[in-house]
Amino acid sequence: MATFDFSQLEARERYKLLCAAVIPRPVAWITTLNAEGGVNAAPFSFFNVFADEPPLLIVGIGRRPESGPKDTVLNAEREGAFTVNLADTALAEKMVATAADFPPEIGEAEAVGLAVADGVTQKIPYLKDAPVVLECSVYEIRYLDVDRALLMGKVSALIARDGLFDLDTRRLNVPHWDPVARLFATSYAPLGEAYSLPIPDWRTITGPKETSE
Ligand SMILES: Cc1cc2nc3c(=O)[nH]c(=O)nc-3n(C[C@H](O)[C@H](O)[C@H](O)COP(=O)(O)O)c2cc1C
């Protein structure tokens, strides 16, 4: 086995190892409002859901290349809200294009040709073509240092493309969902084939206990 002792590694090496080890990661394509009212959009793969009550998701946001917090965290802090758009494979190229280091006053959504719709439970617009959208109010922003933060959102609504969720059972129609997952560096992957694996009753695993006379 190879052991990488994190106390002996540069931050960049730790980043590369973590990014490659924890895959596939979902991508939160976050829309926020910039100070001029334009729609800022940027992808973040240090992301997942962490609780259902309250319904919380968390995003790890690093620093801008030249230092300072990224626009997404500053916008979310100012507006008290942000929206997570989930991209499918068809949107992957545009999603990655919004990661370019645009100046804060340029709205990436318009710059890369993405249509937006008015938010339903938040004033933040969402990306019209995104198959799934999670509108959030800011629950907490935990700064790890001056310009790295954990952005926590409390989900106030899930908006989904027609046919993706069964309206009665709330179950996902898996073949209709083609999410894009981040691997590392410039590599991405589709979902792959789903299979079912029910949790067995523990008694079927341990078998009958042996008795001694
Ligand atoms: C697929 C993908 C995932 C990314 N994930 C993260 C992430 O988890 N955290 C982060 O700080 N930056 C991440 N980035 C980089 C940001 O998207 C990029 O810095 C962006 O310009 C930030 O925009 P903003 O300043 O408008 O917030 C990612 C980029 C890509 C292409």
Commentary on this structure:
Keywords: Flavoprotein, FMN. Residues 20-174 form the Flavin reductase like domain. Its cofactor is FMN. This protein is of the alpha+beta class and 213 residues long. The protein has one domain: Electron Transport, Fmn-binding Protein, Chain A (Pnp Oxidase, Chain A, Roll), CATH 2.30.110. It has 5 helices and 12 strands. The protein has helices at residues 11-21, 71-79, 92-97, 108-111, 203-206; strands spanning 25-26, 28-33, 39-44, 47-52, 55-61, 81-86, 116-117, 126-127, 132-145, 148-160, 181-182, 188-189. The chain has a 7-stranded antiparallel β-sheet. Strand 11 (181-182) and strand 12 form a beta hairpin. The longest helix is centred in the first third of the chain and has 11 residues, at 11-21.
The assigned structural class equals alpha+beta
The number of E-state strands comes to: 12
Identify the strand order in the major beta sheet: 3-2-6-9-10-5-4
Q: Name the poorly predicted regions.
A: none
Label the overall shape: globular
Ligands in the model, by name, code or SMILES, are:
flavin mononucleotide
| Order of SSEs | HEEEEEHEHHEEEEEEH
Radius of gyration from the alpha-carbon trace, in angstroms: 20 Å
What would the average pLDDT be, to the nearest integer? Answer: 94
CATH T-level fold name? Pnp Oxidase, Chain A
Instruction: Report the top-level CATH class.
Output: Mainly Beta
The first-to-last residue Cα distance is: 44 Å
Protein name: Flavin reductase family protein
Cofactor: FMN
Keywords: Flavoprotein, FMN
InterPro entries: Flavin_Rdtase-like_dom, Split_barrel_FMN-bd
